[in-house]
Amino acid sequence: MNTENPDWQEIAHQLRKPDGEMGLKVAENMHKSNIEMTRAAIKGLELQPGDKVLEIGHGSAMHVQELFMQQPDIHYTGLEISNLMHTEAQKNNAEAMKTGQAEFFTYDGIQLPIAQNSLSKIFSVNTIYFWEDAEDFSRQLFASLANEGMLSLAFAEQKFMKQLPFVQYGFQTYEMEDVISLLEQVGFIKHSISNQEDLFPSNTGEPIKRPFSLVVMKKGLD
Fold first, then answer.
1. How many Å apart are CA 155 and CA 214, to the nearest integer?
2. What mean pLDDT is predicted for residues 138-166?
3. What's the start-to-end Cα distance of the chain, in Å?
């Protein structure tokens, strides 16, 4: 990657769907830069024994072992649009796949290949920007959850995202209130919300504070 004259459109593509040699580098950087957001999203799930957990857009999935450390008695499913990340996730979680604790699938990013009412927890970090039809996708997430199931989303605040040069290429940014409204519209109930911060590498390599939102919603009883 040319760091002096970066191709921001290509970087945007790689952030959405990593591929090739550059995709591996981007995935490694994403894991490092997003790990605190990922931990916040996982914490928001309030994991319980027997939970069936889905992650949308897991990347290299190097964080998945942290879920099992918090709660060993869960089943994890990961969905990815990137074939490269699907392969990397399987490599990084071979043992959990052997024991049947984890499984990974690719999908088109539009239709969830998940049975209705089959999950207890869903989480996703920095993927909401790429939901092509956010309302329809939210409805599918809602339908996939059993009653009292929880959805935990972590995403960078719109004001911060607008400062990044690659965001003009295919990113839809959101304020926290927009996401809450979107999810309530399809039936979710607010569980907990918070504004947090982590450190994000700037173009110079120096870390800068990144404000992000954590929105945790619940599916109520019928």
1. 7
2. 93
3. 51
